[in-house]
Write a structure and sequence with these properties.
Helix content is about 45%, strand content about 15%. By secondary structure, the chain is α/β, with parallel strands linked by helices. It folds into 2 domains: about 5-125, Rossmann fold (3-Layer(aba) Sandwich), CATH 3.40.50; about 130-370, 3-Layer(aba) Sandwich (Rossmann fold). It has an 8-stranded mixed sheet, sandwiched between helices. Strands 2-1-3-4-5 form a 5-stranded parallel sheet, with helices on both faces. Mean pLDDT is about 85; it is low at about 370-388. Bound molecules: adenosine-5'-diphosphate and magnesium ion.
Amino acid sequence: MARLTGLIISEDERFRIHLAGLMRAGAIPVSVIERRQSQDGASADLVVVDVRAQVPSAMATIERLRAGSGSVAVFAVASESSPELILQAMRAGANEFFTWPPAEPVFHEAVGRTAARRDSSTAGRPQARVLAFFGAKGGAGTTTVAVNCGVELARLSKRPTVIVDLKPGLGEVALFLGLRSRYSLLDALDNLHRLDGEFLRELVARHKSGLEMLAGSDHFERPGAADSGAVEEVFRLLGRQYEYILVDAGSQIHACSVAALYTADAIYLVTNPDVPSVRNAQRLIDRINQLGACGERVRVLLNRAAEPYPIPPAQIEGAVGRPVDHTFPSDYKTVSAALNAGVPIASTGTSEIASQFDRFTRRILDLAAAAPEASRGALGLQRLASLW
Ligand SMILES: Nc1ncnc2c1ncn2[C@@H]1O[C@H](COP(=O)(O)OP(=O)(O)O)[C@@H](O)[C@H]1O
Ligand SMILES: [Mg+2]
């Protein structure tokens, strides 16, 4: 699925909050960057310009954006839809025109057209896929599943794959992989201005499977709320270097894990077949739904599944309101031996749990190959213009 970067240009904070919410609530993941992170939309795919007040300066902004990039999609939001204003916006270089407040389905259709245009202009260049792993509760096996899936993805796809440990304070991804890293996610967050491909290569550690890792922070307070914008930006920059980006997002909803949820193409919610996990999974799905349509991207993974189930799978599916996407058996011996040796389960032999990681990963690769294209259509304004 296409992922876009959106920028909002408006002096009105209410407008910015409303538009950021709209962008994030659609089926296509859009990461919203702040103006200070992007010089006049230089790195954005989509820029929304508020043309409700000070029309001439807003039109000048659209012209400047268009002159700066032929491919950026410019959305103009005006207070009325007079034909003169629409024409003026179109001549300045806007692709889409809305009246305030934009109707959700119409806005999301326009985002779909933008994604389709970008897909066709970058045809042949693979899109990064972000897979976020989130635990229904601590100890559910989120790190176990994320790390093992990462190793298998790197091994099977042979494509650039990275895992990011987002957990504040001593994440365990490095430990599970048996890797040491001199640098961590914090070095990326604190050096955004010079975070090019070469610098990123310095920050990651490489596992022998080919999987690369951006290690977790060793600060208990970071990444914190103040880092969430930078976290989204790091994902965007990683997207230029890697085809698969896995995120161990822990089991707490906070500003940075929410940033990962917004960016993710798929959100894997790792749960166990017990009452506290299922109850938490239910509540987390509700919360993720409240955060926007990224709820549609949630897939439930059942880990430590073993007969007799404290709660049968059908009842779990009923409680969380969606099917279990994949089940991993309970196998403490294999999992803990792998952890103690710092070796991923997939490399430990022919256990059922190892073959489930293989199967799960192959399904992700099939899904990636068959990712649905965003709806294609004529440019909004051109179509509008042709109706006159
Ligand atoms: N499928 C499984 N079967 C048995 N034990 C497991 C399984 N998955 C994880 N564990 C164990 O559960 C513990 C917590 O796993 P971890 O991945 O660290 O969870 P989380 O990241 O959700 O806190 C670890 O000791 C791990 O070895
Ligand atoms: Mg963990």
